[in-house]
Amino acid sequence: MHSRMSARSAPIALVAVGALVATTVGVAPALASTPSTASPQPAVATDVPERAADKISPAVQQRFEAKRSSDFWIQFADTPDLAPAKDIADWAERGQFVYDALTSTAKESQAGVVADLEAAGVEYESYWITNAILVEDGTAKLATKVAGSREVEQVHERFSAQQIEPVERKEPTKNAPLATEWGLDAINAPDVWAQGYTGEGITVANIDSGVDVEHPALLQHYRGYLGDDGLSNDYNWFDAGGFCDGAPCDVDAHGTHVMGTMVGDDGEGNQIGVAPDADWIAANGCASCSDTDLLASGQWILAPTRADGSDPDPAQRPHIVNNSWGQVQPGLIDDFMSEEIDAWEAAGIFGAWAAGNAGEAGCQSTSSPGANLATYASGAFGPDGEIATFSSRGPGEDGETKPNIAAPGDGVRSSVPGGDYAEFSGTSMASPHLAGAVALLWSAAPALIGDIEGTQALLDSTAVDVDDDSCGGTPADNNVWGEGKLDVEALVSNAPIDGFGFLTGTVTDADGEPVAGASVLVGERSDTTDAAGAFRLGLEEGSHEVTVSAFGFLDATETVEVVEGEETTLDVALETAPTTTVTGTVTDGSGHGWPLDAQVTVQGAPSSVAAWTDPFTGEYSIELPQSATHTLVVRPAVTGYGTLTTEVAVGTEPTTADVAPEALAECTAPGYAMTGAGATEEFESGDVPEGWTVEDLEGTEQVWTFDDRFGATNQTGGEGLFAEVNSDGYGPDGTQDTTLTSPSFDMSGLEKPLLTFDQSYGALGDFADVDLSLDGGETWETVLHQTSDALGRTVVALPGAGGRSDVQVRFHYGDGAWALWWQIDNVGIGSCEPVEGGLVAGFVNDLNTGDGVDDATVTAGEASTTSSDPENPGVGSGYYSLFTPAGEQQVTYAAKDYTDGAATVTVTADAITRQDVELAAPLLSVSPGSIEREVRLGGTRSGRFTVTNEGTAPADVEVAPRSSDFEILGSTSRTGVIQGATQDVTEVSTATSGTSSRAARGTDGFGRHGTAGQAVTPAAPPSLLADGTTITHSSSQDVAPGNSVACTGGQTKWLRTFTLEDFDIQGEFAVTNVSFGVETVFSATEGTVNLYELDGDFEYANMELLGTADVSLEPQELTMVDVPVTGTASAGSTLVVEVVDEAGAWFIGSNAEPETAPSYIASDDCGTPEPTEVADLGFPDMHTVMNVTGETTVDVPWLDVQPPAFSLEPGESATVLVDLDSSRVDQPGTYTSGVVADGGTPYSEPRVDVSLTVTPPPSWGKIAGTVTGVTCDDETVPLEGAFVVIDGSEYDVTLVTGPDGGYARWMGVSNNRLSLLSSATGYPPESKNARIVKGQTVVHDFELDEYCG
Q1: Is the domain of 1219 the same as that of 1321?
Q2: DSSP track, 1124-1151
Q3: pLDDT of residue 971
Q4: Is residue 274 classed as helix, strand or coil in its secondary structure?
Q5: How far apart are CA 1188 and CA 1056, in angstroms?
Q6: CB 888 within 8 A of CB 904
Q7: Is 260 helix (H, G, I), strand (E, B) or coil?
Q8: pLDDT tens digits for range 82-120
Q9: Of 944, 895, 898, whose CA–CA distance to 921 is shortest?
Q10: What is the model's pTM?
Q11: What pLDDT digit, counting tens, does each position of 1184-1207 carry?
Q12: Nearest C-alpha neighbor of 414 from the set 167, 221, 217
């Protein structure tokens, strides 16, 4: 689906709570005054290039040269003026101002481009915080088109960031220290706690890998923690990439560690957090660190949402957000997140950043965002007080001194998932010390909340200077330490605390239960109670009037005296307001008057205060507090109606409030249509229509045309010919200013006339206006002024035209100078009026089960609709509503896998006529539900089961196995098998066959990278352990350095052929994954994997593309990459796998071990356009490591069912025979499958579980064992994903060890003698000789020693 400025989804909360959970301190930044009104300021446009091509970045252009489509960002020029936000004292108002300014600017400036994207049918996501749109898989043509919009500043490539990975992670422990953590002592945090400042009333956040919410040091500090009532994740947790199931989780441990340093304290000695009484919320934007997840998290930080992504509320934003992520390349500077940082700071959010861990690269090693002018970033020092060697040095962007400050970061103990604690080292650990310090500062000095500049200045002035001029700077501010060591005691001691005290308390109901979400207002300052009903405010010394209010309760007012430096407690018990029942009906208010399906809510009330109407009567009922006037918000669920608000005064007696929303002018509500003052003009004559006139105001004869003379075709959404001014078609020397004027229309019988038309307007410095004349053309007024792109159906109000008899409209295109175009079609004038008829509505139900049937097509005449499960919780599945003419109507009902139904309905005008229907369907069952047999390898067995149709319609049944599994005999180890060729491989003939000399072909440019070295065993990808069949020509999975060949600096294609019969694959082979070795990747780039089927000589002309997939490659060496890619090779065919490097940025992995078929290479850039054996290029020892994983169409070769197909009438049964043939398998063990009876029913297919236990022949034995590793810490651990190559006299096989390090394989003694070779990533290999002993298990364990270099 396309995205249109919508809220981003997040997981559903574990516990649904009606009240919002928030703790915000609404104190004026630097005691600034609050304006009486605040509204978003006009957007400011930056200078942008005039030509579309100049706006497209070189990286995007390069991608389009290599591929037909690509992802790209569209950056818009307009930015709102957020400066006034800093003068707003109220925390909620300040955040709302920033949010409104950003969203309104984005909506307005993106509208034209969004229309283009919708028309192109591409996937896109809009972001308001940066005023940008991400387009997925867009074409060069589309990129050029959107770049032509005046609002677009740039079209650029995607961005990638990473966690600033700790340079060291020590093993976890649960032991608590005997004292506070060294980092807390180093910044003097305990001294601040002793003064009573612990972060209370402050909310911190991080954008990281997530947080383990169950960790004992973090759980009770989570803002969404409700004690025994569980968790509320509304406004408290954002799962950016969908990595967690509802509640906060951590995919790495990085985010949990960072959060622990900010707030962690388990109350039992593990006091790890700087601000232990602060609350935390989180967004896991760096679970992936993708640009989209980071931007979405940045938006959520500014305006948190409910767990389902709805109702953004800037008032619930955090005060401080930690960011321990960024670019890892030393010294790399970019402006990603610059708009987000500006928005955060405008809203009063303090961002803490990590400077980076590239210090060993020397000076100028800090990278973005920590290196940027806009960020405040921390370097790291250790327990010895010395700067950490890994801490990145400055200068940063534009010579800025970086880092800004230094904090503890080397050997920091904090929380990790699972309730444990561990020491990590990195600037990622320093930054949360800074964030926690600001939380202590702001809790101690509320006057500083939101004052980013003042806070940074105080941090600078109180830091402990350290003299180090090795990278430039002064003793007080240098590019190693920044301003110096963080000292939170000095920070607080120098804060503006004098003259302030604190007001704290709890708001409860009359029974003592906490009231969450209550507003505590003291003058211009306010706080919102958290889940425990608690609040805390910093107030000036003196007397204050406190007003506490919450929906459903009576307001309470108290007077308190606040003493400087002291804490005053005020607990308030609110009385429940008595309620009265408000009932009413919601009906159409534009003429028909029929009931509407609608939701009724109340402004200012929790979301739980809501009611829905009965869609057949329009009636609703809701309980509201007495003695108050409430604003009802009525939101019709029916298309074509807008939301309506109405006030209702609620007294002590039941009250009625009927509401009648009107149909919108766009006229999409059912039962309404445009009633015109004349016929719709479709411009099909190819010339100026009768009664219409064209005027050339420029005198260039470049005017409106109607014959598509420039070949643009109709882009408006209409069909056939159209009217257009094609500025692009008139060329670079043309100029256009021309009008198209309608004939006169008599609108004396219309009350609110509208102009409707389809259009396609590409703005480029021109304008496209609609003008209105009420006096036959004597005077004109512009009613639509367009200077940005527009597309599709357009509705324009014609003010004052109702009741007039001489009305004209004109379409005025001007300032055209080799711009784009304006096309219009289907011009109509009229008003949205009711059409005679009524609604037929009801439920489509299942005749067998009585359940509602969704997605059924309901048709009456030319009208149709689809049944669904509507949003209204009181209406079940299968609901439909359809407008049709009044009188007797034949209504038909059709749904997949059901028999069609029909009903004759007498439809009443201006009313809802209810008609329910039941649809028949077949319903299958099987008996028995399982079949179990045992047989020696090579033997057969059989069984049978019965299929019965228990439904109400006939069934055409197909019976087939749908799944399979295998457990090898005598072992629980899950072993992956990489299957080599089982026979002599099929040779393929290349275009260069017979030409053995490289020089004979005149090719050059092929070469190797680096020097040869010891081969390394890469980590096995998960696909090698997954179900399915993996095949290879590689006898070893090792990757050797300096061995692979590529076209140096140019395109390289590495290929292998796999003839299916060589691997004993019967039938088709559906590829799911391709894994291949990687020798080296120089810099972040992309590769492509293509699947082909070969028919003839090995040439591209004989290769049919089956599937393709791209893979992103980060810098790496001697690894294995797994790429999901799909394509199906036909039975008996030769599959070709091609891996492509377009940019000359990497080398595939290879070794010199034997291979069962040649490795091939091709490169246009190096004069080898067709696949050529690598040996023929002079590199006989370059054998590509490549594996292909997939499923065979004969998924269960040992199982056959007869008959495979038959028909059953309702109540009939059939017997199915099952033949089990163990000669079709190669290993003893237990084979299981599920045989499914598919009868084309709407229900789950019944299944018979089939199990065949296969015992070994007498001459067979098993070889098995475990591969363990002895680590550098002298620990012995099982090695999952290790390779065990079994080289036999008849055939070879490569096994991949399971989670316990185990492997197992049965073989006949005829395959003796065996050679075993075990290897694993990071461990030198070990080899052994072995023999199969019939009837026995021979165990060969491997203990590999980790390479400790």
Answers
A1: no
A2: EEEEEEPTT-EEEEEEEESSS-EEE-EE
A3: 65
A4: coil
A5: 10
A6: yes
A7: helix
A8: 989 988 989 999 999 999 999 999 999 999 899 889 888
A9: 898
A10: 0.54
A11: 999 999 887 656 889 999 999 999
A12: 217
1010 within domain boundaries = no
CATH number for position 476: 3.40.50.200
**Does residue 1307 lie within any of the structural domains?**
yes
Query: What's the rounded Cα separation, in Å, for the pair 561 and 544?
Result: 6
In a domain, 21, yes or no: no
Tokens standing for 342? 């500006």
Judge if 176 and 323 occupy the same domain: yes
Indicate whether 486 and 340 sit together in one domain.
Answer: yes
Six token digits for residue 559: 């007077």
| Cα separation, 617 vs 595, whole angstroms | 5
In whole angstroms, how far apart are CA 98 and each of 39, 436, 449, 1247, 1293?
9, 25, 16, 57, 63
Task: Give the chain's domain count.
Answer: 9
**Can you read off the two tokens belonging to residue 421?**
């604690």
- Do both 460 and 589 map to the same domain? no
Q: Are residues 710 and 853 in the same domain?
A: no
User: Please, what is the end-to-end C-alpha distance for the chain in angstroms?
Assistant: 52
pLDDT band at 980 (very low <50, low <70, confident <90, very high): confident
- As a whole number of angstroms, the distance between CA 555 and CA 604 comes to 14
Using alpha carbons, select from 1069, 1021, 1064, 977 the residue that is nearest to residue 1295: 977
Residue 991 placed within a domain: no
Q: What is the CATH number of the domain that holds 534?
A: 2.60.40.1120
Last residue of a domain, one of 516, 538, 573: 573
Domain, as residue range, for 1034? 1015-1192
Contact 486/475 with Cβ under 8 angstroms?
no
3-state secondary structure of 282: strand
- Shared domain check, 44 and 175: no
Within 8 A by CB and 6+ apart from 782, the residues are: 769, 770, 771, 772, 812
| Cis amide linkage into residue 928, ω under 30° from 0 | yes
Domain CATH number, residue 1233: 2.60.40.10
Coil, helix or strand at residue 281: strand
Residue 416: other Cβ atoms inside 10 A = 24
Same domain, yes or no: 680 and 785: yes
**The token pair that represents 900 in the structure block:** 């069609």
Phi and psi at 1001, nearest 5°, equal: -100, -5
Please state the φ and ψ torsions of residue 1272, each to the nearest 5 degrees.
-65, -20
Amino acid at 878: G
Sheet holding 350-354, edge to edge: 237-238, 279-283, 203-207, 320-323, 350-354, 376-381, 405-408
* Residues annotated as catalytic (active site), given as ranges: 208, 254, 428
Instruction: Say what percent of the chain tops pLDDT 70.
Output: 92
Confidence class of residue 991 from pLDDT cuts 50, 70 and 90? Answer: low
896: tokens are: 């997949």
Residue 787 burial by Cβ neighbours in a 10 Å radius (0-12, 13-18, 19+): middle
Helix, strand, coil share (%) of the chain residues, nearest 5: 15, 40, 45
Contact 326, 354 (CB under 8 A): yes
Which of 158, 178, 193 is the endpoint of a domain? Answer: 158
The residue type at 1054: W
Q: Are residues 1136 and 1209 in the same domain?
A: no
